[in-house]
TrEMBL record:
Annotated transmembrane regions: 33-54, 61-81, 93-112, 160-178, 198-223
Top-level taxonomy: Bacteria, Pseudomonadati, Pseudomonadota, Alphaproteobacteria, Hyphomicrobiales
An annotated GO BP: CAAX-box protein maturation
Keywords from the UniProt entry: Membrane, Transmembrane, Transmembrane helix
A GO molecular function held by the record: endopeptidase activity
A Pfam short name: Rce1-like
Domain CAAX prenyl protease 2/Lysostaphin resistance protein A-like: 125-214
Protein name: CAAX prenyl protease 2/Lysostaphin resistance protein A-like domain-containing protein
Length: 224
């Protein structure tokens, strides 16, 4: 009887010392969301640094290019192909026609805004700015804000409108450094349109051209 009681006490002590079970599936689901938060943090980092006084505003373009290069480099290092980033065959005429219609509609809205509101932004030095914006900035923004979010949401099996909203939010975040609420709203709305277009096409080429055209028009009209 004494031995039995001793064994019972030992088992009771072991049961109390046994660590509680962990919810491994819940932890795994949380870690699966890490790329969503990581991309958002990377794109917001230059804007946050500027607003905290840690980075001069004049270095915003350099910081955004560094972040974009890091994001694209990580994708290439992870084995993501250029076709997965949307650089497939560019000669899909339905894509180009659809994107042309979208671009004209956006341009019409922008022209209407100039009639309703006053914008005081000064146009850039075109000779140095235009080649950089068309050939470097627009492609980088489209890959980082359209292609990469699509890769992440597809792997999470959260495509469709979840992707469109996330892509639009990333496009708005990358403009956080300017500290302009109207610009953040406009870029979010533009992100919804271009995100929906990429969801339909999975072709980044027409969107790069559309982005370059709309961005150039925005600078010319003083909207950006």
């Amino acid at each position: 009887m004494i031995a039995a009681n001793a064994n019972d006490c030992r088992m009771t002590v072991l049961q109390h010392q046994r660590p509680p079970p962990t919810d491994i599936p819940a932890c795994a689901d949380t870690w699966r969301l890490a790329p969503l938060a990581g991309l958002a943090l990377l794109l917001a980092a230059p804007g946050i640094a500027i607003h905290l006084g840690l980075l001069p505003f004049a270095y915003r373009v350099h910081a955004l290019l560094l972040v974009s290069g890091l994001c694209i480099g990580l994708c290439v290092w992870a084995g993501v192909s250029f076709s997965e980033l949307g650089f497939g065959k560019p000669h899909q005429w339905s894509h180009w026609l659809g994107c042309a219609a979208v671009t004209l509609a956006i341009a019409a809205v922008m022209l209407l805004q100039t009639q309703m509101f006053t914008f005081e932004a000064k146009p850039p030095a075109w000779l140095s700015f235009a080649p950089f914006y068309v050939l470097v900035s627009s492609p980088c923004q489209e890959v980082v804000c359209r292609s990469i979010p699509k890769l992440i949401t597809d792997r999470l099996q959260r495509g469709g409108w979840a992707y469109v909203l996330y892509s639009a939010a990333m496009f708005s975040l990358i403009h956080l450094c300017y500290g302009d609420p109207a610009l953040l709203l406009n870029t979010f709305l533009l992100g919804l349109v271009w995100g929906a277009a990429y969801l339909w096409m999975a072709n980044i080429w027409p969107l790069i051209v559309s982005h370059a055209a709309i961005g150039t028009l925005a600078f010319a009209l003083g909207l950006a």
